[in-house]
Amino acid sequence: MRWKLHPIAELAGNGAFKIKMTRIKRWYGLLGCGVLAALAGLMAQGAGAQEAPPAPAAKPFFARWGDFYRGDWAPPAVQAASAQDAAAAPTRRGLPSPLDSPPFPNSDWSYGGSPVIGEPDGQSYPLMSAINGAKSRVKVYGWVEPTVNGSTSAHDNFPVANDETANRLELNQFVLYVERLPDTVQQKHFDWGFHLTSLVGTDYRFTTGKGYFSGQLLNKNNSYGFDPSLEYVDLYFPKVAKGMNVRVGRYISIPGIEAQLAPNNYTFSHSLLYSIDPFTDTGVLATVKLTDQWLVQGGLSAGHDVAPWTSDAKPSGTACVSYTTKSVNDNVYVCANGINSGKYAYNNLQQYDATWYHKFSKRLHSATESYFMYERDVPSVAGPVVPETGANGAFCRAGVNRCTAPEWAAVNFLQYEANAHNFFSLRTDFLNDKKGQRTAYQTRYSEETVSWTHWWGTTVQLRPEMRFDRAWDRAAYGKGTHQNQFTVASDLIFHF
User: Fold this and answer.
1) How many angstroms separate the CA atoms of 384 and 399, rounded?
2) What is the H or E stretch that residue 383 is in?
3) What Pfam families does its record include (predicted)?
4) Which residues, 6 or more positions from 265, have their beta carbon under 8 angstroms from its beta carbon?
């Protein structure tokens, strides 16, 4: 008896059976691989779910703030990531920076009234890192600056600025900035920025402009005060030459090496030259980068240290030109600042200023500045005309009720960079207040200052100094009781 075969078996003797068997094997093989792959995926997911650590909880605000300082003060090996972040920043457009900052306050030969055109905004600040991880272009930051000095004068160190009161521990500056810098690296589209400043401390007396809460100083002579020192907008036009910035508002008077805001200076105390010249202007200033080497500026302001709505305001012109050599070893910056009729008003100084920077080597450079200033029709201190409050009269010739009051000055800073955290400065300074209108003493002054700046990371500066001042023609220190004065002083700047 023959067994009846399965229909498939009946095909064993021909090619059709072989083809069907091959297809069946292929289908089962694919199905098996798919099942194994699915099982492997489920196992991997299960294992991953067991092995993945839970998401860390967000750190509190003050913990994030503290983390910035710990990272900033860490050994260089820990700071390697910061160096990598810096390398990823936008490329600078223009000549290379001549200086290291820190330890120096700036990496470029400075000019006022504009951000450095072509320089990317690579700054990060502790407060912004805590607020949003430093991810926004609007930045909030500042510093606290306590100071101390010892002096051979009993009461005040005038005309020394920033430690004017003798033998005191003070808070010179508590400053808060809110700003957005325009992107001046790119040359494709218009951009804008703004800057707001709040300054509280003893240094308000050196930034105050008449009409800006000036009663604290001019009417009450308060030791401490508040001043909105800088309030402006920046408008950047990339297709004008190699970039043009237009600043509108209140800004630091543009010529010179020094500025009233503490971190922007080589030393704690200011030179005699800077102590008596204009501090802020309110107006419009255009800065045009013609080439990588040439830069020009032109503007119109309400005059020095006055708000446009005060009776002392006068339309005043500003014109400057800056030239840098291709080697970046030299820069010359010349300005005519606040130019008008020159007739006596609150700080209506006619200023002609020149600055020369020179780099001897990577570690050694100098900065030299000189100016000539004057006012016309200044009331005589011995005449019947009463000078304005806060704007001294002049020592005119006997019998003359008004006269022209000129002054000229020169200063040199010699800086040596020891390393990334330390530099030393020697400042030599001379001022001739020919009619005594700026200092209230008709005499020639000189001073020598030796200073050391030390950084902890990029957020804390210590700047001790020793300074010797002399008035050559008459006693002008200690309220006019002696001709020589010696001070030892220091500030500490804590950035946040």
Assistant:
1) 11
2) none
3) BBP2
4) 105, 258, 259
Strand 280-289 and strand 138-151: the pairing is: unpaired
Q: Which residue has the tokens 């309400």?
A: 302
Amino acid at 139: K
Q: What angle do CA 123, 461, 196 make, to 5 degrees?
A: 50
d(CA 157, CA 477): 7
Taking the model in full, what pTM does it have? 0.85
The answer to whether residues 493 and 262 touch, using CB atoms and an 8 Å cutoff, is: yes
Residue type, 154: A
Q: Phi and psi for 270 in degrees, rounded to 5?
A: -95, 160
Return d(Cα 304, Cα 307) in angstroms, integer: 9
CA dihedral (474, 476, 478, 484) in degrees, to 10, reads -70
How far out from the chain centre does Cα 218 lie? 28
- Residue found by looking up tokens 């860390």 in the block: 56
**Integer CA distances (angstroms), 285 to 237, 246, 291, 348, 369, in order:** 13, 6, 19, 18, 22
The H helix count followed by the E strand count for the chain is 7, 17
Beta-sheet pairing, 225-227 with 244-252: unpaired
The 10s digit of each residue's pLDDT in 222-255 is 999 999 999 999 999 999 999 999 999 999 999 9
HSE toward the beta carbon, residue 353, CA cutoff 13 A: 30
Domains and CATH numbers, the chain: 99-495 (2.40.160.10)
State mean pLDDT over 96-111.
96
- Strand-pair category, 244-252 with 231-237: antiparallel
Cβ proximity of 374 and 404 under 8 Å: yes
Residue with tokens 């810098």: 181
Task: pLDDT band for 76, please (50, 70, 90 cuts).
Answer: low
